[in-house]
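Researcher: Here's the sequence for the chain we discussed earlier.
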Amino acid sequence: MRVQPIEELISVLSEQAEQIKQLEDRASNLIQDPDQIQRYRSVLEEKAKLLAGLAQLTVPITKKMPPEEATPLQQMLSKFSQSAAASLRIGSPFYMSALLYPQDHQQGQPNDLEVFINDLKAKN
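Model: Thanks. This is the structure I predict for it:
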């Protein structure tokens, strides 16, 4: 049985979310050491680059979907990517660290990408 595009999208996004979580964990450890600020910044840039490429990464998957289903998904993925690309242009570690987190985010709650993935799972 073939994997449906939505299931493929969930899988790819889940893998990306896991990589991002690992990078964020690494960054939170590095920020504790003033001698590691350059590595901290580098890890945040890697996170932002992953997010910046998210829309492009998922185009081959969303192209397999009907346009009425694919368009809103691709628009949301583009928002993630555009914010990340902006953070890279600005070069702000603070902006990069805040990607995926609304101002009122509570520790332990899912980030915006995880919420998006959970919504996809609920609709599937």
